[in-house]
Amino acid sequence: MRFTYTLWTIAMGASLALALSATAPHAGEKGCQGQCYEEVPAPAYSATFKRRVEIEPGAYEIAREPSLYGRATRRVLLDSGVEWRERPAVYKTVKVRQHLKSRVTWEKRWIDGKYVMCKVRVPGKTVWTHREVLVSPARRWKERSAPVYGTVEKRILLRPYKNIAIYNRARHAYVRERVVIQPEGTVWAPVSVRAEKYR
User: Fold this and answer.
1) CA triplet 54, 56, 62: central angle to 5 degrees?
2) Span 78-104, average pLDDT
3) How many angstroms separate the CA atoms of 20 and 190, rounded?
4) What pLDDT does 19 receive?
5) Are 119 and 162 spatial neighbours (Cβ–Cβ below 8 Å)?
6) Residue 6, SS3 per DSSP
């Protein structure tokens, strides 16, 4: 606004100076007592301004970089090659001679019309019986062979995902606009008046 007012002031001064220079030789003639002015049209003054306008504002957008995976191979033991073997114990039934000692036992007897318990001694004797005897004990042992290995694959994370912020700059353009600094109007300018008009 201040710039427009300054241009308007400069334009008014220029037009007034032009009018004065055109009529100055006749301002002091005999036909005009003092100074005379007349209203003359003043042209409009325009100027072109260049200004910057925003077409599209700046904005952020998020782009995601995906995770990166790979496969790793690992050697694992499938069979250690160790095997346990067992052999059961071996028994044999044999006939053995066994001596039974004499013992005392109780017997129920009928004496004098009633039952009574009597202590009776049983003499010892020798009898033949069967018995299992250990021929060879049980055995457990370990046998070794070549171990067996294999490979397994595993999916592993090499790089996690990452969010990337991308800034799209605002778009601008320059436009030219012509504006009127001083509209059309009239100004008062000195005039020359001939002496013949007043004789």
Assistant:
1) 140
2) 89
3) 6
4) 47
5) no
6) helix
Closest CA to 120 of 134, 106, 133: 106
Q: In this structure, are residues 126 and 99 in contact, taking their beta carbons and an 8 Å threshold?
A: yes
Tokens of residue 31, six digits: 């036909």
Indicate the residue type of 97: R
**Distance of alpha carbon 44 from alpha carbon 25, whole angstroms:** 27
**pLDDT, mean of residues 175-196:** 76
Q: What token pair was written down for 8?
A: 């308007």
Once rounded to an integer, what is the mean pLDDT over residues 27-53?
Answer: 76
Contact 123, 105 (CB under 8 A): no
Q: Residue 183's pLDDT is what?
A: 81
Distance, CA of 171 to CA of 166 (rounded, Å)? 15
